[in-house]
Design goal:
The complex is a heterodimer of chains A (267) and B (471). Chain A has 267 residues and is of the alpha+beta class. Chain A is built from six helices and 13 strands. Chain B is globular. Classes of the chains: A alpha+beta (267), B mainly beta (471). Chains A and B meet through strand 2 and strand 6 of A and strand 2, strand 16, strand 17 and strand 18 of B.
């Protein structure tokens, strides 16, 4: 009897292994490995990158506002420090404005805002990561990433072709959500959806990838949407002309180029 | 359906526009039609046509291009209206700001010579055209910017021509930024952009691993724009008190010759997240701090050297800054000339923090000490006004954004416990859409004495509104 059970168990395992797709084997990875990979796919593809961004903010009454800017990114080390340069084109009253971030993992980011009308480089405090980015439904953290060490991560499902991971903040006083769940595609580790739950446990915000493309071997979200369910507003971002590994110089991300935008990377 | 939506949007706009127009009409009644009719008519036509353009056309957010590969033209059109709350002896009592302004700007990249391309040549041009109802519809055109930038080698940027120079760490407080400011614009409610006046000069920026250096040469002196009694009343020692159009001072500017060129330098670098800078300035006081001829009421701008330092970086969960400056009043080294401002010490600390929920606050403290004060006091004559040795000034800024950051409420307060004066500046901005913005604000200076910085303009309290269409 025992022999029979052992035998069937053995065949059962072999049968299962045979049926398993490569994706299923990946499922054996730990939750830490998954989120590190997903974080790298979302924020660290290539050594550097650039994209023209069109952001359409639609309020609850259906009125649209449009922001157009160019993002340049430079990675010091994958998964670690990186720099962002955001140059605004539209609307007209913020044209030539530049927002720059030096992102760290072990301390607050350094951030600067260049206001062209005043020719003023302003330092901005970096403790408002959950504030709206230029009035949209995206927050600063959605643009430059949320530190993985800030949350406890739990793999709650790996059914189908996505991992579903629950992220609970270690310090809930800093954030407006109680937890958020991220859906990560098994095939390429692209996070395709994040659902945020408020302190009462009610779903109130969704950030999702609408379109994912392969650009020079890099899986890339080219259209994404953030929806505020409570207010009824949403923001759609189109990432246009995404390019990687252009050789963007480290020195671009300095005060010098806030005042003198690097034309060759912005067109 | 789409048409209906556009129509509804326009109706929304129209509502606010009419509201604004009504505001304009009310002012008309208040001024009892004192303005020349032609000017009123001109203004109405401008405002109306402007509103019609705004309402009937889809906003042109990104300006327009001249030709296929031509330069992009951007700018704005605005109408400013500021009502005066107090009466004094300035030119008008009813309002001190009523003007239409058109700003046009462009950036050109001249490429007709290989050197220009290699040197990344760029021309920045920005011009303002104004119709100023305060002076009976006086028109004015001014280049705000007209300069050429070049980078002949990798470590050097040059910018020559008309440009706005500014540096330092203060918020509305300037220690080492000794470039010209327009305080009249500031007090009557023009946009912050107009606080900083352009200068004609050359700026060389040198970059290296060790530190960066900015060197500025201004061949022709440009003073601060200060109250002269025409639009804003002020303390005039010659009149023995607050003075308006009755002020009869003459301000003698340094003549244009190589000896009177101004020089400024900043050496700066970062240490981790902290930015440190050292400053040097050789030129003139930007305000007339010396009496040239008391009998004939002539003031002048004495020579000034300034040395300073600043530090800015993260601290206490926000951004902290500190700045120091030593002003050497070169024509009164010992401070014993009662007709010329003494050397002065200035020190400032500041702190700003985002409190989340689109709320941010900032506080600053400024300390000023007149040096060689004993020499100054003993040189004073009987009828002279006596200035204090120390001045303490605190400021606070609160900014809160509402409605997806389309509404911005701001409050800036100056308060000096030593001068017993202050200045409150509330503002409210509302973005009607990406192109059209409404601003309401007030300028409320007050003081116990008539001769202190804010106390002197106590009668110039005003509320203002601005409608601005950017393209």
């Amino acid at each position: 009897m025992i022999k029979l059970i052992t035998k069937s168990l053995f065949f059962g395992i072999v049968f299962c292994l045979l049926l398993m797709s490569p994706n299923k084997i990946i499922a054996a990875e730990t939750v830490e490995e998954i989120i590190v990979k997903a974080n790298n796919v979302a924020y660290y593809e290539g050594k550097d990158g650039r994209s023209n961004v069109k952001m359409t903010i639609t309020d609850a009454q259906g009125r649209n506002r449009v922001r157009e800017f160019t993002i340049l990114r430079f990675d010091i080390e994958d998964g670690k420090e990186q720099k962002y340069y955001v140059y605004f084109n539209k609307p007209a009253d913020v044209q030539d404005m530049v927002y720059m971030v030096w992102k760290y993992l072990d301390r607050d980011d350094d951030r600067w805002l260049y206001l062209p009308a005043l020719d003023l480089v302003r330092r901005i405090a970096a403790n408002d990561n959950r504030s709206s980015f230029v009035g949209s439904n995206f927050v600063y953290e959605d643009i430059s990433g949320r530190g993985l060490a800030l949350d406890n991560h739990e793999l709650i499902s790996s059914e189908g072709d996505v991992f579903k991971i629950k992220n609970t903040p270690k310090d809930s006083a800093d954030v407006e959500f109680s937890y958020f769940e991220v859906y990560i595609q098994k095939s390429n580790f692209v996070p395709v959806k994040a659902e945020y739950y408020d302190k009462q446990g009610k779903l109130y915000k969704i950030v999702e990838a609408i379109e994912v493309k392969d650009i020079n071997g890099h899986p890339t979200v080219t259209k994404s949407k953030a929806t505020d369910l409570a207010v009824g507003s949403n923001t759609v971002i189109d990432f246009l002309n995404v390019e990687y590994d252009l050789g963007i110089e480290d020195e671009i991300f300095t005060e010098r180029y806030l005042r003198r935008p690097p034309r060759k990377w912005l067109n | 359906m789409a048409k209906l939506k556009t129509l509804l949007e326009n109706a929304h706009l129209l509502r606010y526009s009419l509201f604004y127009l009504c505001g304009v009409q009310q002012v008309r009644l208040r001024v009892h039609l004192r303005m020349p009719c032609i000017c009123t008519f001109f203004n109405s036509v401008l405002v109306l046509s402007f509103l019609i353009v705004c309402i009937t056309q889809t906003p042109v957010y990104a300006g327009f291009k001249i030709g296929e590969n031509g330069p992009r033209i951007n700018g704005f059109f605005e109408n400013d209206l500021g009502l005066k709350l107090g009466n004094d002896s300035t030119k008008r009592d009813e309002f001190n700001l009523f003007e239409q302004r058109l700003q046009i700007k462009t950036k050109l990249y001249p490429e007709w010579n290989k050197a220009l391309v290699d040197w990344m040549a760029a021309i920045d041009a920005k011009a303002d055209f104004t119709v100023d109802e305060y002076f009976n519809g006086r028109t004015n055109a001014q280049w705000r910017l007209l300069n050429l930038s070049l980078s002949p080698v990798g470590w050097l940027d040059l910018k020559a021509g008309r440009q706005v120079f500014t540096w330092g760490t203060g918020d509305y407080l300037f220690i080492n930024d000794l470039f010209p400011k327009d305080y009249v614009s500031f007090y009557i409610g023009r946009d912050d952009e107009y606080l900083k006046k352009p200068s004609d000069g050359i700026k060389a920026s040198l970059y290296s691993e060790i530190s960066n250096v900015d060197i500025i040469i201004i061949p022709e002196f440009e003073p601060n724009t200060l109250f002269n009694g025409q639009r804003v009343s002020f303390f005039d020692a010659f009149q023995g008190g607050i003075s308006g159009v009755n002020s009869q001072r003459t301000l003698n500017e340094p003549s244009q010759n190589p000896e009177n060129a101004e020089y400024a330098m900043r050496v700066y670098r970062s240490f981790e997240s902290y930015e440190a800078a050292a400053y040097f300035f050789r030129g003139f006081w930007k305000s007339p701090r010396g009496y040239l001829d008391e009998m004939n009421r002539v003031l002048f701008y004495p020579r000034l050297d300034a040395y300073g330092m600043s530090l800015r970086g993260p601290g206490l969960g926000g951004i902290a800054n500190a700045e120091f400056g030593y002003y050497n009043s070169r024509q009164d080294d010992n401070g014993d000339n009662r007709l010329i401002q003494n050397s002065t010490l200035k020190f400032m600390v500041g702190y700003a923090k985002d409190l989340g929920n689109d709320l941010s606050v900032g506080v600053q403290y400024l300390f000023e000490q007149t040096l060689d004060y004993d020499n100054y006091s003993s040189a004073l004559m009987g009828a002279d006004y006596v200035w204090d040795e120390y001045r303490h000034l605190n400021t606070m800024r609160i900014t809160k954004l509402y409605k997806n950051q389309t509404v911005r409420a701001g409050l800036f307060i100056f308060f000096s416990p030593s001068d017993l004066d202050g200045y409150i500046r509330p503002t409210m901005d509302y973005d009607l859409n990406d192109a059209l913005k409404l601003t309401f604000g007030a300028n409320l200076p007050w003081g116990e004495d008539t001769h202190t910085e804010f106390g002197q303009s106590e009668h110039n309290k005003n509320i203002y509104s601005r409608v601005k269409y950017s393209f």
